[in-house]
Amino acid sequence: MKIHAIYDDLTNIASRFGYIIRKEKGYFRGGNCVLNTQKIIVVNTLAPYENRVAIIARVLAELHLEELSIKPIVRLLIEREREHAAKSEQIPQVFTIEMLKPEPVLLRKKRPIQA
Question: What global pTM score does this model have?
Answer without folding.
Answer: 0.73
